[in-house]
Design goal:
The chain is mainly alpha-helical and 273 residues long. It has three domains: 2-103, Helix Hairpins; 140-218, Orthogonal Bundle (Helix Hairpins); 222-272, no CATH class. 74% of the residues lie in helices and 0% in strands. The protein has helices spanning 2-6, 13-24, 31-35, 38-57, 61-84, 90-104, 106-109, 118-135, 151-164, 172-192, 195-215, 220-244, 254-272. Helix 4 (38-57) runs antiparallel to helix 5 and helix 12 packs across helix 13 (254-272). It is extended and about 65 Å long.
Length: 273
């Protein structure tokens, strides 16, 4: 019985699917859950994915277990809505991703050899994905790069796709030269052009910075996330030292905070030495 399944802690994914069916039941379910659709749930899905990444960054494995459950719930939520609308089901989603993984790894699940270079595996992967895109009426190399990705990550992925078909600078020095060019254009825009043109030039500079990260083997999204964490940690150190002096940032000068920033930075480097 469904009630037995709801309370069966060992029932696995079937229990969660039944819980979602009950929550979405038009007659007996939760009013809030019933009202939700793809659009209203999508922001929660993105938030949960970030919380998974945050738990990993903090090495909080107990928290990660919970966050992975929250993210799994999002997939169950979307598939429940899809099933209600006759679009797809949880089972069809699982079947499709399983088929995709098998098809994309013929060197594991098929007859192809595993003895390939990383470059050859990448080329094979792109060839398989090109066939998949053709089946979905996706003809361009950039088709399928999700518009909803964080902008820095999407820039990285767009450039990676373009590079795989030969549209790329051959040398990192060329990218650095382009950064210098874009920085000069941004300075010119600041001094002589409109706010809209400054906005465009700033975007161009950010785009090329993401490309430099790709050329250096650096994920720009991860690098900026790490820089955000470093700034947060060091500024918290500045605030702590100000508290020791009976002060706050609001009643301190920039020079005082700069000096404390340098002290916090030096202490971090000394701790790593």
């Amino acid at each position: 019985m469904a009630s037995d399944l709801i309370n069966d802690e060992n029932a696995g994914i079937e229990r969660l699917l039944e819980i979602m069916r009950r929550l979405r039941d038009r007659d007996t379910g939760c009013p809030w859950d019933i009202e939700q659709d793809f659009d209203t749930i999508a922001p929660y899905t993105i938030e949960e994915a970030y919380e998974v990444a945050d738990a990993i960054a903090r090495r909080d494995w107990a928290e990660l277990e919970g966050e992975l459950g929250d993210l799994l719930l999002q997939s169950v939520y979307h598939t429940a809505i899809g099933e209600e609308q006759g679009l797809f089901s949880f089972q069809s989603v699982v079947r499709n991703i399983s088929n995709k993984m098998v098809a994309r790894h013929p060197h594991v699940f098929g007859d192809e050899s595993r003895e390939k270079s990383a470059e050859q595996q990448t080329a094979d992967w792109e060839a398989i994905k090109a066939v998949e895109r053709a089946g979905k009426a996706q003809r361009g190399a950039l088709d399928g790069v999700a518009v909803g990705l964080p902008a820095l990550l999407r820039a990285y992925k767009l450039q990676k796709r373009a590079a795989r078909v030969g549209f790329d600078w051959p040398d990192t020095g060329d990218v650095i030269a382009k950064i210098q060019e874009e920085a000069a254009e941004l300075v010119e825009a600041r001094d002589t052009l409109s706010a809209e043109e400054q906005f465009e030039e700033f975007g161009d500079l950010m785009f090329v910075m993401a490309n430099l990260g790709r050329h250096l083997g650096i994920d720009p999204e991860a690098a900026l996330r790490a820089a955000n964490g470093k700034f947060t940690r060091r500024f918290a150190g500045v605030e702590a030292r100000l508290r020791d002096q009976g002060k706050t940032p609001e009643d301190s000068t920039l020079e005082e905070m700069d000096a404390l920033w340098d002290a916090v930075k030096a202490a971090e480097k000394a701790a790593k030495a």
